[in-house]
Amino acid sequence: MTTLVPSPVRVIGTGLIGGSLGMALGRAGAAVQVEDVSPGTTALAVELGVGALPAPEDPAPQLVLVAAPPDVAAQVIDRALRTWPEAVVADVASVKTTVLEGVRALARAEDLPRYIGAHPMAGREVSGVIAARGDLFQGRPFVIVPHPGTVPEAVTALKGLATEIGSVPVTMDASAHDTAVAHVSHVPQVMASLVAGTLLEPTEAALGLAGQGLRDTTRIADSDPRLWVEILGANAAAVADVLGDVRVRLDDILAALDSLRGSPDPSIGSRRALAGLIADGNRGVRRIPGKHGGGTDAFATVTVLVPDRPGELARLLTEIGQIGVNLEDLRLEHELGRAVGLAHVAIDATREDLLTRSLAERGWTVADA
Amino acid sequence: MTTLVPSPVRVIGTGLIGGSLGMALGRAGAAVQVEDVSPGTTALAVELGVGALPAPEDPAPQLVLVAAPPDVAAQVIDRALRTWPEAVVADVASVKTTVLEGVRALARAEDLPRYIGAHPMAGREVSGVIAARGDLFQGRPFVIVPHPGTVPEAVTALKGLATEIGSVPVTMDASAHDTAVAHVSHVPQVMASLVAGTLLEPTEAALGLAGQGLRDTTRIADSDPRLWVEILGANAAAVADVLGDVRVRLDDILAALDSLRGSPDPSIGSRRALAGLIADGNRGVRRIPGKHGGGTDAFATVTVLVPDRPGELARLLTEIGQIGVNLEDLRLEHELGRAVGLAHVAIDATREDLLTRSLAERGWTVADA
Question: Parallel, antiparallel, or unpaired for β A32-35 and A9-12?
């Protein structure tokens, strides 16, 4: 089977990400060799179909994927560059600048052009090879992070890899990547953990009043401390920059609340500070693209049961707007004398999950696609 | 039809909450009279089936529900207490202490015992009578907030009302209520808006890396600034107390990140601060009860399709644990030669939504209940 991926591929570190990459690459027709510091993990990875144990007679890998923890990535990359002088060597750590600095400090100048960074974006709550799956990166962004000296062949190799595993390749430099993930992943994690941390104090009766909003806001707070100490530590500068802005705004809000505290006739400025917070939040949340990173313009059709009562269709369209989904097209299906009609709602395909889930949460009956 | 609700009921203010209460009470057999400062809104409410326009020959209301904005609630309540000297008068504003203070300042001492606060907990993104629905409060907490002078009949009336509309009555005093909603609703709203507010800065390419975590964390940021200025202003003290603690912890995190910034060998203390943040978040998020306010201990069974490949069942159980749901029981159903098996997973019924949604997000095929 022909593949866009240079083969064989050596996957070093068979956790969730390395394991899933191996499975995906195997399905894409690449010969995958696996290795892990833990022999047990390596054996499990082979059993789960991540790849094969390297044999002495195997040809040298053309592509090496280092899926080791960020703190050891640089050493492993340097070793790989020296061991396989022909291979493109990429790491898949979720933070890129610190890894690049580490490689620059360790690697020989002549090896550096064969190094390239990568970050296949995927769910974080899961971990371990036991959770690996070949379709983990399907439709997700695959960030390719060349440094100024990276050879074009390395970029081509990773674009081919991203395509073969069904991801959407995106190219950024290391600092742009780290700023981006600080915004879309690391700062939201810190904020969700801060919110969840305030829930140690209230009574059970108080928590009994919790609704969907609190659960959504704190869902990602249930994640691995060890993993996140590594990530936040490795991206400290970018995360601190964004959190610094958050702190400034939080201080404004606290000042506004203090002036409103018990005051019958609060200052306009205080109310303006609160309104500005919510309004900017409205604008910010509407900038978030759909599930596949806004990669597609295709429409999807969601079919909703509409009770034959005055205002029901209007309510549906109102709520679709409130959910933040643009209506692209609407087709109604209604039998005379029947108590319900069907609304076929065409929307941006990347918003389908959001709309289906949100409508269901609001009590609408949504027909399965 | 007999009902536990004193009838007729006068609903003053027919927005989402007042409108939904009217619909629910009508279905429960109460005679509902509606009034709103806007004649257009009143007419629409009647058309949507919230209730009827009061007629001169109508008997006086036994129960008055004031669903006016918090800033005018006290005046409307006082007027109602004076207009109907026999009626129990309740307001449904989402903040209780400031309303109670307002009523105490305005109302005659002999009227005060007939006043009682209430807060039917319901979704906030929606607004307006067009979005009203009779089942809005189904299975949700209905907080009853008597003051020390409230007559027992008023408490009985609201318990009856809560029961008739399918809510779960919960009794708290005003300050306990305001502290509770600060924790479960107001502070999460501020934090979600703060996160969303940071999304005005990044490039579209950066936002293209967004995943489900960011969307969940910021979903409630898409809410009405005018409404939230009222709510946060009316509950400024309780919100400021919780946000003050958040600010202290945020400062610790910023200090830790600064010490980690570019440092090859970061201090143990800094890493401990980050690990503590995530770990406390883990504990906090696990305290949140399920959809119905943790009201039930009954089990629910979720049926999941398990591909017949090594590790799949283990992966399912691992992920169920990672989702934070305790497995109460497991039954397997497997036909020889069939490529998939069924896992019937028994869990706390209040976790069913979370598990079903999370497993689906992770790509599992979950059979509909």
Answer: parallel
